[in-house]
Amino acid sequence: MSNKNGVEWSIRVGDGSSMVLEPEHEHVVMRLWDRLKGLVVGFVMRVCMFIKKAWDLGVDDPRKFFHCLKVGVALMVVSLFYYMRPLYDGVGGSAMWAVMTVVVVFEFTVGGTLYKCLNRICATFLAGFLALGIHWIASHASHQFEPYIMGISLFILASATTFSRFIPIVKARFDYGCTIFILTYTLVAVSGYHVDNLLSMTHERVSTIIIGTCLCIITSMLVFPVWAGLELHLLVPRNMNKLAKSLECCVADYFGRGDEESKKTLHGYKCVLNSKSSEESMANFARWEPAHGRFNFRHPWKNYLKIGASSRSCAYCIETLTSCLDSKNQVPESIKKHLESACMNLSSTSSNVIRELATSVTTMTRSATINVAVNNMKNAVLELQNDLKSLSDLLIQPHDHKENNEQVSSEMTIMPLLEVMPLVSFASLLIETASRIEENMVKAVEELAESAQFKQPEDEVKLKHNQATNKIVSDEENVIALQRV
Q: What is the pTM assigned to this prediction?
């Protein structure tokens, strides 16, 4: 190590060589600099990754980008009540309630926005009128009893409303309204105790809340609307198609017929398992939406939940089927080939039934070939069951042994049952999946078709039209024949 005078410090090592000492503080500074540089680079990389993911999210679904613009426009318009003096004088300091209303009630879908807006308006009106009535009763009582009356009423109403939120139907449809009712009643009751003109304050707050909710409803319904009912209508058949693809890929991979593409789409059934909360929220929001497109106001959205539940029932079977792919017990190839054709046929026919039902839901048209597809699936089930019954013959195989190149005797070799149990379990689960498709999914789609009045297929319409035409022609011929007589 050299000092200011150019003297260099060194030490002698045990082997006779010398080592020059360098300043330690330079190493510390370099390490700190490298660490700081690594932190800055890592932070920049994370920011870039976040921006890339946000960009990809907007590209995949541009409606989310438009939703952000709608919220910005709504907030900009409602903030004019604060910035413009004539509007501010009309609503006073309560203009902030309009801004808060836009922030808390604007949702991605029209149904979600209507759900919160209508709940907020009704709960605000009800809580405001109750607070005014109880305040009037308390003010006409003795001054010393007024705080007790207000406190007891607040306790009773808040407790009863909170308990009502545990009721399933109230929680599903009016949970947000109960929260707003408690909030509004508490604010009006507490703040009104020291306010002389309580009616004017209540009127200003209710007016600004109505302004905010109306602005949200208009913006949500007229500017690039996203309907929760349409989203649910597209989600259910999309999940059904994923389910059909997963079923085919699972059976194909089990018998060694899968490829890289099938392995990628094998786990599509997981989307079905994870879509329950989305379906329920969309169905709840869709009930609040007006008639739009092909959907009436009283469209049977509950039937979509039944179809989703039946799809998840089949998805659980497919999830169990995929676990057989990683089984450590390997089934002999000769036994596998015995059931391969029947299993592949059953998976193909079952997938065709699911796809036919998905197409029927998407187009809102009754399927003309669904009965044929279901019968083909039933025949495939019977074929697989017959192959399972004949499987016992393959477990007992003759084995000849020779002595001095001469056949002496024949022995029977019995294959261990544990070796074929995975295959039998796989085939049984496949039959159970087909049974759930027939008993649950097909019936759920038929109920939806009845309730929503799906259109008849074109073939049946043409057939009925031809029959009616032939009947008219035959009637005309009979009339002409009678006239001749």
A: 0.79
